[in-house]
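Recall the central idea of this unit: under ordinary conditions, the amino acid sequence of a chain determines the structure it adopts. In this exercise we apply that idea directly, starting from the sequence alone.
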Amino acid sequence: MTQQPILPHFRAHAWPLLLVLALLIATACAASPTTDDGRSTAITRQRSASATLAPSPTVEPSATPTATPAPSPTATVVPSATPSPTPAGLSEAELAEMRPNELGWALVMEYHLIEPGEDAEYSRTPDSLRADLAWLYDNGYYPITFRDLASANFDSVPAGRSPVVLTFDDSSIGQYNILADGSIDPESAMGILLAFHKAHPDFPPIATWFPLLEVDVPSRILWGQPEWVDQKLQHILELGGEIGSHTVTHNRLDQLEESQIQWQLGTSQRTLEERIGGGYDVVSLALPLGIYPANEALIQAGTVDGVPYGYLYAAEVAGGMTVVPYAASWDPIHIARAPAAAGYIDALMGQIERRPSLKYISDGDPTTLTFPSEATLDEEQQGTFDAARWPDLVVRRYDRALSDE
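Accordingly, the structure predicted from this sequence is:
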């Protein structure tokens, strides 16, 4: 699929300049996301919460400039709750070591092709994916699904660890390939995830997969092996992963009639749910090319042949790290992702290493929300807790020492 970049300020011929800019931003540790005239204003709404760790590369190109969708209302920032005593179950020493921050930002990694050769905007080599997993593990990340992050279900994340969502768009065969002998290709993404889990049992092979159903590249229709589709779907779920939608044909939703948009969204959801069976609900959507329809309400509710559909969560195409549902700027259908594009992801990883205090770090207790006191919380995250939406949540605050960061 030959396409043109959607970012108005960084066309294809400017990619080298973008890479230099991204690296300079990483060094300064003060990046600010570029709003895309082909997407909604979600990144603008999250600017105060994710500016430092959110450089914007030219990813998921589109054919022509797109119309700007109607912006959604901006959430009102609510003052953070009154500090509480030391969180129950954590000693002062444990707090000092873990420095939990459950108001921190999460990382949603975005992959497309996994194939040999060299890393590019839309492809990652098997070795680079292995290196990404090693970096995530070494930096305390723990995989969860997209739906778990979006629903604030961080229960599985151990104390001191940070959630990461591994997402795979377009269902190319390099993501999940079955060899002639029936084994999983060790060079495919699934093979790499399983091997990494075997070597690191505390890093589960959990990912969210956004497949396509009908495109002109057979190897990208449900991972390119029709005879193995059902087994792959079931295996992903058995591992604790998630199946989401990437529509049927990957058409730009801003260029379709509303009836066609509903057909794309509803047919994809229904087809996947029927294939999976067992009452499984497909609730997550990755927008093709990251472009939203003018009527964004069609994401959350519509009908196809009188049958209703609806998605609870939707993924952006870029934006860097994302705020979590506890933040006032949270928008469940505009969730930022970090594309594993050459140069970009390396710059972002470097920024995270330099500003680890901005990460979501679990306290290991699903019944409480623990984050630093206002005085010791990073400036970008001060005053962003949406207490009004979480009135029944037990909030614990503590003074975090940051002198060695």
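Residues 247 and 265 are 5 Å apart (CA to CA).
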